Amino acid sequence: MNDLIIFGNSIFAEIAIFYFKKFSNYKICYITCEESYNKQDKFHGIQQITLDEALKKNNRKYKIFVAVGYSKMNSVREKFYTKFKLKGFNMASFIHPSSYVYSLKIGENNFVMDNVSINPFSKIGNNNIFWSGSIIGHHCTIGNNNFFSGNSTISGNCIVKKNNFFGVNTSTKDGITISNKCFIDANQHINKDLKSEVYFNNKINPKQILKTSQIFD
């Protein structure tokens, strides 16, 4: 068993705890979070420690998983991922046994839920969340700090850069590029490249005037 510390005590952290316990060879030793959220001794029966205490733990003994969702375009998860990396910790990833991951490269602190398909010749960066049933097509390049909701589909040969959010049942045309900090609403189909900070909903924001920095920061 590998020793693990999970950062976060939100709903997503509950899900991460469930999956790591049931489907991984990690032993969850501690839960940690920011001081303002640290209001109990245990979380789901696991000892909860302060962030300062966690950062002082032996970075050779413990791996870290940052269990934070897409708050502020994934920047909260990115912030704490970076904090632990600067302290020399190695980061854990989770891949559900029912998922098919054929990528050439996959980074760390990725969370791949059940029935996800990551096709051959794709490359996956760090700190991404792939919810149940999501699909990453062949020859795609996925950057860091992205969130792919359930049944979202990225078609083949696409580039997804950093800190993007894809809602439930979203899809893309093949061969397009999604820049940084784009929020794609549920049930939307993207058929052309997106510049950074686009809030994509063809009915609500057809001219892409609203930017994610105006809505979610």
Give a written overview of the molecule:
18% of the residues lie in helices and 29% in strands. With 217 residues, it is of the alpha/beta class. The chain has two domains: 2-92, 3-Layer(aba) Sandwich (Rossmann fold), CATH 3.40.50; 94-200, Hexapeptide repeat proteins (UDP N-Acetylglucosamine Acyltransferase, domain 1), CATH 2.160.10. The longest helix is centred in the middle third of the chain and has 16 residues, at 71-86. The chain is globular. The model has no long low-confidence stretch (mean pLDDT 97).
Write the layout of secondary structure elements.
Layout lengths: L1 E6 L3 H13 L2 E8 L8 E2 L2 E5 H5 L6 E5 L4 H16 L3 E2 L2 E2 L4 E2 L3 E2 L4 E2 L4 E2 L4 E2 L4 E2 L4 E2 L4 E2 L4 E2 L4 E2 L4 E2 L4 E2 L4 E2 L4 E2 L4 E2 L4 E2 L8 E2 L11 H4 L2
Parallel strand pairs: 1-2, 1-5, 2-4, 5-6, 7-10, 8-11, 9-12, 10-13, 11-14, 12-15, 13-16, 14-17, 15-18, 16-19, 18-21, 19-22, 20-23, 22-24
Antiparallel strand pairs: 3-4
